[in-house]
């Protein structure tokens, strides 16, 4: 942190009184206490002393009198006193009967895990709530703090010396952060849908500022007795990928712990990309990927999911023989519609049998793998759209990474923000809905974005199926000049039957805006669109990941 030049150091702000947080239960008083709770021994506000002497606080649940317990660590900025049954919205699909009142938000249920012979530790990070110090999140400071906490938990007299980590969203992200440091006691990780690139997945989509989820998240992690990073101010201060963002990059290729990684096709604009990137890059000898199309919180707390987590942790934290070593390396849902899918297994991700198919755009609104299209399509940059359809004659599966290559021109602006959605239409031309975020059932197949001035590619990191933009500079457009852009479309998996249609939508603003203002939903309202967007079809195509069904590993 101190190695950063002053202009790249995080902007800090005074913390907000932890007792004033709305929509949270009353903040327990400071000070250590021990009591019986839910039939378990509960230690509240147990001090954890970090390497610089700072004290942070943990709540620990364990079976009374038990020893040789592996520990599951839940590391979250949202307050260890915040419980899942107090913050889940009804549309999430989580049945309150699935979890005990002690379950932390997006984390493991202590009652279930203690009955299975584990201890559960829920930790408020440095500077969060009553924990000491300033809250520097998603960087070296937090990684080292988590390392120290793992070491502390493993050394408790009742502990076995083995620690695992599990949880959704931020509770997954911290696993990507600390695992590369290789804490000796960290024996297995279970990241369940989390960012692994804070610039490209959280703050900016294709270089376009995200203005819905990010400021809301910033407000949710401001409760502190000291100072916290001002997340929203830092996003606004650093629109390009510079040393500030580099300080938060993850060394995913240094992760070697056994990993059970879970992603969702439904988390477009949030966690889909990051979870799959983490799986691809980690070097664990034992790693498994599961990708579903359901609502993420409901999927995490399903009995079937919980059993799989137990099999995984029993094997690697308790050395028990379970089913885990017989699991397929990749298990995913090929979606028909929300709630309806086929299961596919594979040996690796992306699927090795993928054949990339170019669908050429034509000004008549069609896409075809045949001859190149022609003509131009124009639409209002502020409220218009371009639509292209391709109807399949045979059963078709698209699983993996798509990209859109466009020859574009802006009339009346020196930049353009491009929003892309892939949708499925049934045989009657009606849109088929899919899971979207943790709440919705009318979502897209996949989404993509790009600010045209960020169109430069990194040739070393781009692949034929996934463009990689460095986002370290801008190249504005000139009137009357067309440029080529490659737009990354986040991964997805969808089955199309004969007569069903893949639809491509391109427009200058969000294509999906389903959430109420108080729901965590991605929005993009700081746009550079004016005048008219022009698409030159002759050199424009959508590349899709076709899976030959006769070569299926289903």
Under CATH, the topology of the largest domain can be stated as Rossmann fold
Return residue spans where pLDDT drops below 50 for at least 5 consecutive residues. none
CATH class of the largest domain: Alpha Beta
Judged by helices, strands and strand pairing, the structural class is alpha+beta
CATH architecture of the largest domain: 3-Layer(aba) Sandwich
Quick structural summary:
By secondary structure, the protein is of the alpha+beta class. It is about 15% helix and about 35% strand.
How would you characterize this protein structure?
GO terms for molecular function: dipeptidyl-peptidase activity. This is CocE/NonD family hydrolase. Pfam families: Peptidase_S15, PepX_C. Residues 310-543 form the Xaa-Pro dipeptidyl-peptidase C-terminal domain. InterPro entries: AB_hydrolase_fold (IPR029058), CocE/Ser_esterase (IPR005674), Galactose-bd-like_sf (IPR008979), Xaa-Pro-like_dom (IPR000383), Xaa-Pro_dipept_C (IPR013736), Xaa-Pro_dipeptidyl-ppase/CocE (IPR050585). This protein is an alpha+beta fold and 554 residues long. The chain has 2 domains: 6-255 and 263-327, Alpha/Beta hydrolase fold, catalytic domain (Rossmann fold, 3-Layer(aba) Sandwich), CATH 3.40.50.1820; 355-551, Jelly Rolls (Sandwich). The chain has 11 helices and 28 strands. The chain has helices at residues 84-87, 110-115, 140-154, 170-178, 198-203, 213-220, 231-237, 243-246, 272-281, 296-301, 303-318, and strands at residues 12-14, 33-37, 40-49, 55-62, 69-75, 119-124, 159-168, 186-192, 204-205, 208-209, 227-229, 259-264, 287-292, 330-337, 340-346, 355-361, 367-368, 376-380, 385-391, 396-411, 417-425, 431-432, 434-436, 440-443, 446-451, 483-496, 501-507, 532-546. It has an 11-stranded mixed beta sheet, sandwiched between helices. It is globular, with a radius of gyration of 24 Å.
């Amino acid at each position: 942190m101190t190695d950063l030049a002053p202009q790249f150091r995080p902007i800090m702000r005074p913390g907000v009184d932890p007792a004033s947080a709305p929509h949270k239960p009353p903040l327990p008083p400071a000070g250590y206490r021990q009591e019986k709770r839910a039939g378990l021994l509960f230690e509240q506000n147990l001090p954890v002393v970090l390497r610089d002497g700072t004290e942070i606080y943990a709540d620990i649940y364990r079976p009374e009198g038990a020893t040789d317990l592996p520990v599951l660590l839940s590391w979250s900025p949202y307050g260890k006193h915040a419980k899942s049954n107090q913050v889940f919205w009804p549309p999430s699909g989580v049945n309150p009967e699935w979890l005990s009142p002690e379950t932390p938000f997006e984390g493991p249920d202590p009652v279930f895990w203690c009955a299975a012979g584990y201890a559960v530790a829920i930790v408020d990070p440095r500077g969060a709530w009553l924990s000491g110090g300033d809250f520097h999140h998603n960087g070296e400071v937090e990684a080292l703090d988590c390392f120290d906490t793992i070491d502390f938990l493993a050394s408790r007299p009742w502990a076995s010396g083995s620690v695992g980590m599990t949880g959704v969203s931020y509770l997954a992200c911290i696993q990507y952060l600390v695992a590369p440091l290789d804490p000796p006691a960290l024996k297995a990780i279970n990241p369940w849908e989390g960012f692994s690139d804070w610039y490209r997945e959280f703050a900016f989509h294709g270089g376009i500022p995200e203005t819905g989820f990010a400021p809301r998240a910033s407000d949710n992690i401001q409760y502190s007795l000291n100072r916290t990073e001002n997340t929203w101010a830092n996003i606004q201060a650093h629109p390009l990928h510079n040393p500030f963002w580099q300080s938060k990059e993850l060394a995913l290729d240094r992760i070697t712990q056994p990993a059970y990684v879970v992603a969702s096709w439904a988390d477009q604009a949030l966690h889909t990309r990051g979870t799959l990137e983490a799986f691809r890059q980690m070097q664990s000898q034992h790693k498994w990927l599961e990708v579903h199309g359901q609502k993420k919180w409901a999927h995490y707390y399903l009995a079937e999911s919980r059993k799989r987590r137990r099999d995984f942790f029993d094997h690697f934290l308790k050395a028990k023989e379970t089913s885990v070593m017989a699991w397929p390396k990749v298990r995913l849902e090929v979606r028909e519609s929300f709630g309806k899918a086929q299961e596919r297994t594979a040996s690796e991700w992306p699927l090795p049998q993928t054949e990339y198919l170019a669908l050429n755009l034509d000004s008549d609104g069609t896409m075809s793998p045949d001859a190149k299209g022609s003509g131009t399509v124009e639409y209002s940059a502020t409220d218009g759209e371009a639509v292209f359809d391709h109807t399949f004659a045979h059963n078709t599966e698209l699983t993996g990474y798509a990209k859109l290559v466009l020859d574009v021109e802006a009339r009346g602006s020196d930049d353009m923000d491009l929003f892309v959605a892939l949708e499925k239409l049934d045989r009657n031309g009606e849109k088929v809905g899919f899971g979207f975020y943790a709440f919705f059932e009318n979502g897209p197949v996949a989404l993509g974005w790009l600010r045209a001035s960020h169109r430069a590619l990194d040739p070393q990191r781009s692949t034929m199926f996934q463009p990689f933009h460095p986002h370290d500079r801008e190249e504005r457009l000139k009137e009357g000049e067309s440029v080529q852009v490659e737009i990354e479309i986040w991964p997805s998996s969808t089955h199309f039957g004969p007569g069903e249609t893949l639809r491509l939508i391109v427009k200058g603003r969000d294509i999906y805006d389903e959430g109420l203002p108080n729901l965590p939903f991605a929005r993009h309202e700081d746009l550079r669109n004016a005048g008219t967007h022009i698409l030159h079809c002759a050199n424009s195509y959508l590349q899709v990941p076709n899976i030959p069904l006769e070569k299926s590993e289903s």
